[in-house]
Amino acid sequence: MPIDPAVAIGAEQPPVPFSWTRSDVLLYHLALGAGADPLDPRELRYAYESDLRVLPTFATVAAEPRTFEPPAVTFPGVRLDLANVLHGHQEVAVHGPIPAAGRGIRRSRVVEVLDKGTAAVIVVETTASLDDGSPLWTTKEGIFARGEGGFGGERGRSPRITPPARQPDVLLDVPTLPQQALLYRLCGDLNPLHAEPEFALASGFDAPILHGLCTYGMAAKAATDAMLDADVTRIRSFTARFAGPVTPGERLRVAVWDEGDRFPLTVTVPARGEAPVLTDAVLVTD
Ranges for the MaoC-like domain (predicted)? Predict the structure, then answer.
């Protein structure tokens, strides 16, 4: 069996040293659509090195930009086929502004293996720190493995983040480019699901889909720009659940509610009857 919960839970990967440069940050931001208006000084904070600010969701790719092979989902007790793997949810919490360049160490471990019946969810927590030990960020991701459930494990709970029962304070239309996935994969996620039509068909999709983490980063940027005047240094965390795929070229609609230091949001695709693609999402600030 590809998953052995008794072995997997608590399993740690060896510490991984990594580094990133301003070019890595710039590429990440551009892959999210930053710089679409190159005359906007707020956009240049993302897309020009002279006053570069780092969107905290960069933490999801910071250790990956020099990856040249498709990713493997492998821990002790876990080995999964990429064709059956989807991103379930993502959390990023930062301990302060991320430097525009640096060196660090990341440590990852499996904290939960949940049995959803027809699928399994492997929850992986990763911490990152600078070489001197200063904490950078903590991420938690849920890896949804189709066809791997039914092993008798705990189902777990699915915490919900419900927006206020009123109209959103802001509605934002965010375009995606037809080549958006081909750009974003240069940040390190080379899963062929996002590039190869034949692989996408074999995985149950009509065409390659956008990386969930690209949608995640675009939503965080849109909310930051609209609600925080693009001040990424105020962000403390961003959490979201992936509810549906996005085809590159589709337009996203980001609805944001203002609750002071919390900004619940949802992301839908209007062209598909407001099909949800991100739910249970909240941006938290200082």
Answer: 164-261
Task: Please tell me whether the overall predicted TM-score, pTM, comes out greater than 0.85 for this model.
Answer: yes
Catalytic residue among 194, 211, 225, 280: 194
The answer to whether the CB of 114 falls within 8 A of the CB of 123 is: yes
CATH number, domain with residue 183: 3.10.129.10
Backbone angles phi, psi at 147, to 5 degrees: 80, 5
Instruction: List b or e across 127-145, with b for residues whose CB sees 16 or more CB atoms inside 10 angstroms.
Output: bbbeeeeeebbbbbbbbbb
Q: Is 89 a catalytic residue?
A: no
Residue 197, domain extent? 5-285
**Which of the following is catalytic: 24, 115, 189, 280?**
189
Nearest to 76 by CA among 28, 148, 124: 124
40: annotated active-site residue: no
- pLDDT tens profile 206-259: 999 999 999 999 999 999 999 999 999 999 999 999 999 999 999 999 999 999
Structural domains of the chain, count: 1
